[in-house]
Amino acid sequence: MTGTNQNSRIRLWRSKGAAVEGIPTIDELKKTPGWPSLKRLKRGPVAIIECIEEIPCDPCEAGCSLGAIKIGSPITNLPVLDEDKCTGCRVCISSCPGLAIFVLSLNYTDDEALVSFPFEFLPLPEVGEEVSAVDRKGKKISRGKVVKIVNKSKQDRTPVLSISIPKRYALVVRGISGPKGGLSRQNSSFKSGKSENKKRVLDHPILGRQSPAKTLRIIVDGKKIKAREGEMIIAALLSAGIRVNRFTSKYNEPRGIFCGIGQCTDCVMIVNGIPNVRACVSPVEEGMVIETQYGEGKWG
Amino acid sequence: MNRIADVVVVGGGIIGCSVAYYLAKKGVKVIVIEKKKGLSFGASGANQGGCALQLFHPPVLELARPSLEIYRNLSQEIGYDVDYENTGSLVCSVDEEQYPDMQKHLEKKRRQGINVQLIEGDRLRELEPTLGGDVVAGVEEREGGIMNPFKVNYGFAYAARKLGTEFFLSREVKKIERDKDRITSVVTDREKIGTNFVVNAAGAWASQIGKMVGISIPVRPRRGQIIVTERLPLNKRWRYILDADYLTTAFDLAAVEKSEDPRIRLGVAGSYVQENTGNWTIGSSRDFADYTTRVTMQTIRYLAKRAARFMPKLKSVNSIRLFAGLRPFCYVDGLPILSRLNSPRNFVIATGHAGEGVTLAPITGKLISELITEKTTSISIDAFAFSRFKGLN
Amino acid sequence: MIPNDKSMRKRVHDIICRCEEITEREIRHAIRQFNLRTADEVKRLTRAGMGLCQGRTCALLVEKIISEETNRKVSEIFPSSTRPPVRPIKIEFLAKKEEKES
């Protein structure tokens, strides 16, 4: 309906701001020293640093070899963009750990702008692919086309994508939605182990290949499970598809891994006869006997 | 701001709230003043919540018995469940040398009219498999029990509030004003409360309140440390188990100070209470360390070692919290002080309960309320009179 | 919006303290019934924070509930007292002798 289209365009510029939603409005961004002037935007590609948090962080300063980004002292300063020194070369984009630096080529063509942004998802799209362009909230705004993908090793696994979009969304579009086919495409690229340990990821596209480790056997509720030496009990359980570690005392509810860092005690089980052992921080041992803990468990 | 009350109770612990409740029941307008941000922040909130009748001798026994009677129906009376359970208690020894003492203890209790029985070690282990091989014999009594001390404290306060009592939190008493031998008002950092009576239920801090009316109250803080364990399945027969040494550490200060055993000198004697949730609280210790509630590794080590002797399975159990509390201990004779002074004649003292505050709270509240409204008490409290401290004032 | 009794009745089972399985309803009722203002008091009367994790998971949630119920900022709520041990430790380790002791 044409009515809705009008409204959705107006809604784009009505987000409630960083303090309320965690997402800055364009007005808030325009007040930061990392935002170039309209005059400079019209001149050619230029960096836009959408950084609003005064935190101790300065990789962008070193990330620009032309010295167009300055933080100075104290380190919590917002980055200042020298729009005259900036050539829009896009090298700084992968230096920001907050993924807050973009490069905009406003007048890429007569009716298109070119937005370059960091993209850390897999699989990467291909040049020429049609994509959905999204705003800072992740909401789809328009169609776009992938023009360039740069993924050099010095970018430390933060590829930079450049997409062409209708010019009127130049200040709004900052990313693309998940690749065609979604996350399921990622799983097929993982090399999994034998069928019994289907959930194991032995070769991860980002974390790399798992180092070889001895296979141990542990017994979980009477069943033998294979485990890797050095891993935590919870990892061995998850690889075998076991997700419930215990049942609670009061409401008999199933619990499994929650925090994973040994704090919440949701994952505790009876190990070698002793209850309340945290599975997420206890390494496996050969012949370990593990049982689902019901309530308080048995005492010895 | 100026206020008026019939009675001002200083201290929002279990004694203060019990006194407030019993007074409020008689239609008295009470204001309770508490210096911390909430109630039960003194010894009332740092204990195991047990009362074993067999630990008491006269004159305190004469108070403990009726107090336990009140506990049987307290939840119904105040309209709030205090988790009272009639678990009874077991005092047992892990040393052969203590066996004759167990016999003497048994006879003494029988003479005092407490229903007790002696059970030998093997039979004890049959009835309660968690007890260890070192346990020689034990004396069991079934009249005592355990309760949730926070719920008792807040329960009394809740019932008192329903009857019109007000609780002023985060207020310290700065001054107590008097006109000759009568107190006229209590001044905090925020208001002045005109009152007819002041009840000093300030526990470990009672002496500071006493100073404000020019008297020396011989109460000092006696620290007790506790280990809390994770939950375990409930014991079958006994969930309140005491070390025979407890009779010494709790009631014989001279023996504690003279002892050659460093453990006894720190006042460490086993006291094990299993709450209805399954957690064990492992006590007890007694030492004087001013007003600090920090735990010390030395005492904790003794507590853990002693616990392992009585219930060896505790060795592989996790402790999840260590804390300490300050008992209000009367260093002259170790007995509570329940008394109305002659001068000022409207100053009432209700403190010095040491390790028996939870047990004696109901009866204390009742008797103090009688002392104020009727001048005589249904049970004699002469043994706890302030006048026994001759030469102190 | 602070849930009133009617809306709380529908949300019976929002667990706040995972270790002791204490629901949001129980905590709000305790705060209202006893005029509680500190995290320590809520812990003592509801058991939220007394479980194995000693409040690591629920402390901030409880403080937020107290702040809503008593109309104060979370920064004004006195946090629950922290005590050793930093993580659960077996009684046998607490009982271990030092070399110097006999």
Outline the structure in words.
The complex is a heterotrimer of chains A (300), B (393) and C (102). By secondary structure, chain A is of the alpha+beta class. Helices cover 14% and strands 28% of the residues of chain A. The termini of chain A are far apart. Chain B contains eleven helices and 18 strands. Chain B has two domains: 2-46 and 150-218 and 333-388, 3-Layer(bba) Sandwich (FAD/NAD(P)-binding domain); 89-141 and 220-330, D-Amino Acid Oxidase, Chain A, domain 2. Chain B starts with a strand and ends in a 20-residue tail after the last helix. The N and C termini of chain C lie far apart (62 Å). In chain C, strands 1-2 form a two-stranded antiparallel ribbon. Helices cover 40% and strands 7% of the residues of chain C. By secondary structure, chain C is mainly alpha-helical. Chain C is elongated, with a radius of gyration of 17 Å. Classes of the chains: A alpha+beta (300), B alpha/beta (393), C mainly alpha (102). Chains in contact: A-B, A-C, B-C.
Topology (SSEs and partners):
The complex is a heterotrimer of chains A (300), B (393) and C (102).
Chain A: H1 2-12, H2 18-21, H3 26-30, H4 38-43, E1 46-49, H5 59-63, E2 69-70, E3 80-81, E4 101-105, E5 112-118, E6 130-134, E7 140-150, E8 160-166, E9 175-176, H6 184-188, E10 191-192, E11 201-204, E12 208-209, E13 215-220, E14 223-228, H7 233-239, E15 246-247, E16 254-255, E17 268-271, E18 274-278, E19 289-291, E20 293-294
Parallel strand pairs in A: 13-19, 15-20
Antiparallel strand pairs in A: 1-4, 2-3, 4-5, 5-8, 6-7, 6-9, 7-8, 10-11, 11-12, 13-14, 15-16, 17-18, 17-19
Chain B: E1 2-10, H1 14-25, E2 30-33, E3 50-51, H2 61-78, E4 89-93, H3 99-111, E5 116-120, H4 121-127, E6 137-141, E7 145-146, H5 149-162, E8 166-168, E9 173-179, E10 182-188, E11 192-200, H6 206-212, E12 219-231, E13 240-243, H7 246-251, H8 253-258, H9 262-265, E14 271-274, E15 279-283, H10 297-310, E16 318-330, E17 337-340, E18 347-351, H11 357-373
Parallel strand pairs in B: 1-2, 1-11, 2-8, 4-13, 11-18
Antiparallel strand pairs in B: 3-7, 4-6, 5-6, 9-10, 10-11, 12-15, 12-16, 13-14, 14-15, 17-18
Helix pairs in contact in B: 1-5, 1-11, 2-11
Chain C: H1 5-10, E1 15-17, E2 22-23, H2 24-34, H3 39-46, H4 59-70, E3 89-90, H5 91-94
Antiparallel strand pairs in C: 1-2
Helix pairs in contact in C: 2-4
